[in-house]
Amino acid sequence: MQNIDMKSEILAFLRQRGEYVSGQELCEHFGVSRTAVWKAIGQLKKEGYHIEAVQNRGYLLSAEQEFFGQHELESRMNTMWAGHRVKFYDTLASTNLQAKLDAENGAEEGTLIVADMQTAGRGRKGRFWSSPAGTNVYFTLILKPDFAVGLASMVTLVMGMAVAEGIRESCGVAAEIKWPNDIVAGGKKVCGILAEMSVEREYIHYIVIGVGVNVGRQSFPEEIADVATSLQAECGRKVSRAELTVSILKAFEGFYRIFQGACSLEPLIERYNRLLVNKDREVRVLDPKGEFRGIARGINRTGELLVELPDGTVTEVYAGEVSVRGIYGYV
């Protein structure tokens, strides 16, 4: 077993047991020598892990410590395929940019690019995404689907569901979706999602889907201070970034499997609409052809937002930015 893999496995084993584990048991479980275990434990301690070593009792991993890094993510990754290759960086320009480079160079589907900080994080329409260190979650998942190009845009909505469910599961915050690709909590933005793809004719080479979640308490830039929040601000306690990341990926696997099987959002519509903050509320649609208002009635099987106009007719909104009454200062 490679040392990097064993460190992640030891973390997972100690965390699962939640009590002292003898060095002998670790040796037998992993089929390695006491020296190998001792070296792995020592390296984990150097990385910052609090692991007690008591003679005749063994090793105990601190349950209160919040850690975020390569081995922490690997040790928690109980998914089927998403995140089974983790590439963690202290600093990146952008996880999406790195993911595209890796995908071009043959990275497998499910490869997860994670950064503690981004220096050139991007949001929708190329907007700057504030990405400080030690505070938030920034990751990009590489997908290599075999479905039609026309389905690719729906993957963003699938990830939106996964982020909302992952947040609810990991920290109990009632996250909702603001169509098409923002997650809100307490009426403010807590997460943005950006999907990009490489296509040749009707063949998808890859899709990279990036997620940025505001996790810890922080000061936001003046231009977004009134519309942004963090999970810690909403739930009043620290949130494990590693646990949150894995929760999102697990939820994504389930929703993505359903989406792939149906080749549409049809079986996910009801669940998506329950998470949709726009649902049955007045929205203002900013369209190149002109702004209009109506009542959002949910999405259809291809992910368009259904908006009921004042005359009772329903229009499908595919492109354009939707502002919601009561969200982002629109009243």
Report on the structure:
The protein has 331 residues and is an alpha+beta fold. Helices cover 32% and strands 26% of the residues. The protein contains nine helices and 14 strands. The strands form three sheets. It has a seven-stranded mixed β-sheet, with helices on both faces. It has a five-stranded antiparallel β-sheet with strand order 13-12-11-10-14. Strands 1-2 form a two-stranded antiparallel sheet. Helix 1 (3-17) packs across helix 4 and helix 2 crosses helix 3. The longest helix is centred in the C-terminal third of the chain and has 22 residues, at 241-262. The radius of gyration is 22 Å and the shape is elongated. The relative contact order is 0.11. The mean pLDDT is 90.
Could you say which structural class the secondary elements and strand pairing correspond to?
Answer: alpha+beta
Radius of gyration: 22 Å
The average pLDDT score comes to: 90
Low-confidence segments: none
Biggest sheet record: 7 strands, mixed
Essential attributes:
331 residues; 32% helix; 14 strands; 7-stranded mixed beta sheet; 9 helices; alpha+beta; 5-stranded antiparallel beta sheet
Characterize this entry briefly.
It is built from 9 helices and 14 strands. It has a 7-stranded mixed beta sheet, sandwiched between helices.
